[in-house]
Amino acid sequence: MMQQPTRITPQQRISIPVLQHPIYRTNYAIQRGVERKLLFRTWGGIGDQICAEPTIRYALKMFKDCEISLASECPELFTHLEFKRVFDLREESPNYDKYFLFDTITPPDDSNLVWCFMSHMLTNCVDFPSLCALRLQLPVADKEIIMTPPAPRDLELSLSCRNGVFIHPGKHWQSKTFPKTFWDKVISTLVLHNITPIIIGANADDNRGTVDVDTTGCLDLRNKLSLSESIYLLQRASVLLTNDSSPLHMAASGDAWVGYIATCKHPDMITHWRKGQWQWREVNFGKGGVWDLIDFCPNKAQSVEAEFVDPDILASWLPVPEEYARWAVTKYHEVKSE
Questions:
Q1: Of 138, 145, 245, 338, which residue is the least packed, with the fewest Cβ within 10 Å?
Q2: Residue 304's closest CA among 265, 273, 275?
Q3: Whole-model pTM?
């Protein structure tokens, strides 16, 4: 039987952060009369927010006696879901006192103590939001990412990209940013096979962006697509080549083959259930990763970091670029013949 939290009295001068600890959270919400006014808040990278979609969709399906609202930095990801109210955190902030708040990802110093018991680095990307917000893993049937973005206004662009081979030469942590020479060889091999690579990505303030690749023979759409347009096109792609980055999660909501290269997070932590199958059409081409180098035993006096790795070791984890590109060529022709 689940133990009931101790009731909080006005005489107890407990700070608000402490009241958000798991032992107090529910009773604190009941005392404020907001236990049925749930607010799900998403933040973090775009990929983190995409991977929160199954958790929020599950809550909407299961918590029938509650009003559920959304506060998000990317509310356009969730237009297929119905909420009591939606707050775009880029423009406004809700009065959190009026809600029972559920974060789908929490900072390492969060008051809910999530990071004392699990790590975003070592937990599957869809399981982490459900564990953070709801303290449960979703049923497998509910873990698939669903996105329904509108069609781009440029229909000619949409048609020209259909069944295309997309490349996201992602740049972020050094441990998952690959050399320009690697991506250039991938691109040139595709061009030699009469395929026009479609390069996507966008620069952000936190050093996220793309490697400065040679775009000769490519359709370069970097910094030209909205988030919704990127998802729409990737759902209709034949192949995506990428590192550990948000386009991997975007493509997981569609049918594309995803040839990704995991180097900083274990491949099982960044991939998905699709079409009722684990890692359907998702293939890792990485030959190793930081999980082979770092001891994750929770007995360290200092935090364990995976952002950096020796460049020579990183290079040893990469596939032969020509072989990586030829796999994409094969899958491209398979999809076109379906």
A1: 338
A2: 265
A3: 0.90
